[in-house]
Amino acid sequence: MPVLQKGPPPASAAPGVQDNLPPYPEADLLYLSGLLTVAEQAQLAQARNFFQQEVRPIAVDFWNRAEFPFELLPKLGKQQLTGLNSRGHLLAGLIQMEFARADTSVSTFFGVHDELFTTAIRELGSDEHRQTMLPDLLSLKKVGAFALTEPLHGSDISRQMETTATRSGDEWILNGHKRWIGNGTFADYVLVWARDTADDQIKGFIVEKGTEGFRTEAIPNKAAVRIIQNANITLDNVRIPFTNWLPGTRTFRDANSLLLHSRVWVSWQAVGQQFAAFDVARAYALQRKQFGKPIASFQLIQDQLARMIGNATMSLSLMIQLARLTESGLLTMDHAALAKASCTERMRKTVALGRSIVGGNGISTDFEMAKIFADAEAIYSYEGSYEINTLLVGRALTGISAFA
Ligand SMILES: Cc1cc2nc3c(=O)[nH]c(=O)nc-3n(C[C@H](O)[C@H](O)[C@H](O)COP(=O)(O)OP(=O)(O)OC[C@H]3O[C@@H](n4cnc5c(N)ncnc54)[C@H](O)[C@@H]3O)c2cc1C
Description:
Helix content is 50%, strand content 14%. A hairpin with a 2-residue loop joins strand 2 and strand 3 (171-182). It folds into three domains: 11-117, Butyryl-Coa Dehydrogenase, subunit A, domain 1; 144-251, Butyryl-CoA Dehydrogenase, subunit A, domain 2 (Beta Barrel), CATH 2.40.110.10; 253-398, Butyryl-CoA Dehydrogenase, subunit A, domain 3. Helix 4 packs antiparallel against helix 5 and helix 7 runs antiparallel to helix 10. It has 404 residues and is α+β, with helices and mostly antiparallel strands. The longest helix has 36 residues, at 252-287.
């Protein structure tokens, strides 16, 4: 990873350089993006522009209607964002952050597809899986989903999973229920985690859309991440070829290897969510006038903006160290849990401050902030709830498990 470049910050980030923009347009007060090489900074700027120009403007409308913007997929596919981690973990994380800064639901769609499903095929699949599936997954012509959680088991899924897989000759037979599965209503492939009845171990199986006995229904009435389609799934004697088992999945530990990296991705989302709230709050504070002045001129509003950017910047700094650990092969679940718990705790405070700055309008999605505020609640709970990640950190610090 390159060292922080010496000398003045890039013109676009320097205070007061552009009269028509507020200082620090990207809100990167510590010039942390200067840790990237110049070529990486250009890639980050390109991704940010795409998210801000193509994703953010359509997000509120789709969020209100709880619909998914399928027309975005070809454009997203052309951005070549799949397999981001191969481009370096800091650049990948900052791109994931910028994705969530534009919209969390669409970034969640992409994270489930890329971090969880496509990575599973790449790292835990067979050569045949890789050859036949990866090209369409990378171009987003086909979409994947990751089905671990069940209606009765979330935090305790690794111990209590009820979904089963039974081998029968050249086939597996899957039975059970899954809940909350992102992209589940329309995904071409769903990676279903099930307990092998032969050895009681949890393994991963690919179920293709339309397989007999495999039913999905959208979870209605969500108050957060309304664009991503989360599904309840029923598996009723679903028969799949033996080769649909991912050979790299033999125990829950293999699922956990994927969850390690997706937990880091979700922590980056929690940073993006804070910058999203800041962007909206600052813009609003600068144009909204009360008592004859922009509310941004009031000390209490400036205090709130300063606390928001302090939280976001501290979260970002933590994530930069996580990228370093990942790059050097030292990342563990303890680190990912610390990041997820710490960044999401700060995120909740940051979006609450942002919502307050937008006043009454802060509860209307017409002003974007209400969407950001609500979406933060999903981030707080998925990919290991705040409590479970905190208990993982507690176990790392004491050697005592308080949850199992
Ligand atoms: C929007 C959204 C998208 C999701 N996408 C997916 C997906 O694509 N694939 C997938 O498999 N899953 C997905 N999930 C599921 C998600 O991972 C679970 O919601 C999460 O793991 C928590 O499980 P739970 O909701 O069953 O809560 P529970 O496990 O029932 O927990 C309820 C509460 O009890 C607390 N708790 C539980 N055990 C303890 C303990 N020992 N000590 C202290 N507190 C405890 C929890 O922290 C939480 O506050 C998604 C969820 C949401 C909301």
